[in-house]
Amino acid sequence: MPFYQQLGDIPNKRHVQFRKEDGNLYREQVFGTAGFVGITSILYHYNSPTMVKEVLGSVDVSPKIAVECNLHSRKLEGFNVVPGKDFLDSRIPIMFNSDLTIELAAPPKIDDDDFYKNSDQAETIFVHHGSGVLETMFGNLAFSKGDYLVIPKGIIYRFKFSSNENRLLIIASASPVFTPKRYRNNFGQLLENSPYCERDFRTPSELEVHKELGDYLVKIKKNGLIHDYIYASHPFDVVGWDGFLFPYAFNIKDFEPITGRIHLPPPTHQTFEADGFVICSFVPRLFDYHPKSIPAPYNHSNIDSDELLYYVDGDFMSRVGIKPGQLTLHPAGIVHGPHPGTIEESIGQKETHETAVMVDTFKPLHLTQQALDLEDPDYHKSWVKK
Prior knowledge:
- The chain is built from three helices and 29 strands.
- It is mostly beta strands.
- It has a domain of 130 residues: Jelly Rolls, CATH 2.60.120.10.
């Protein structure tokens, strides 16, 4: 994130002696990106973070292609995903390309879930249902329904859910996720016409410093494999940190919609950007207010992007037969738009209460068998009047 944060105890200069009460040194870690020229944070550990006691087995979790060249519009029943035994076991990949993987998850409440580090991808996790605490090496971050949890690549974390009723949409990306450049000035500050500001972002607020030594299993994802590492020190032994790289939360309800006299295109709803895709938030908003406006979107061709919509809440004005938890995929090169009758029904309407998350990818998405198992096979025919 392009703003500075600090939590816990740190010395007044970086890379200098910083000692515990017993005179021993805290262990400094520079957590950086892009070969020391990207955004960075510095953490201070009670114990050394390098004490690997054992490396166990590895498991291949890379998604497998079931449909490589998709030219069907598709609808998936996301709530048909079966809960797993833990957070990692719950993650079901449904679509992917070289830039990102889209996953669904219904994880259970577990008191001591595994520590996890994704060294392949940054993760943006949308919480459709659920609440709890995201525990990280940067501290604890409370979350609830509607939160985007943005977790940079390489951060160790684990979830503590408040109940078993959890539904997540996970966007794991090879590149970092940022706020769109057009929302920021030359210094990184969000502009006055941005749909949100720095006050809307929540960062870790509590450090729990675990000083104890022992055997701590950390599952590390790299090159599509999850490797089991046993460390001698607890992953959450950080006494303080500062910098520009950290996990944070942003609630979709804090996205302030931009509206106009006539229908505005989807980039108006953009929330995040990354290499190869964007994430947009459709939230309750006033409709267009030209006296002859048509609130429903026009038919459009995604010549250069696949469009994935995840439906969260409310009445989806331009679709028939859509419910929360469903996903639709409209591939590049196929014209799509409102279902029959919805254009006429939208005329004269003043507002919408819908909430949805959209991911537009600039490379085609491959489908997995898990996606096909969730599919309504007749969705691509749903624009034919009956």
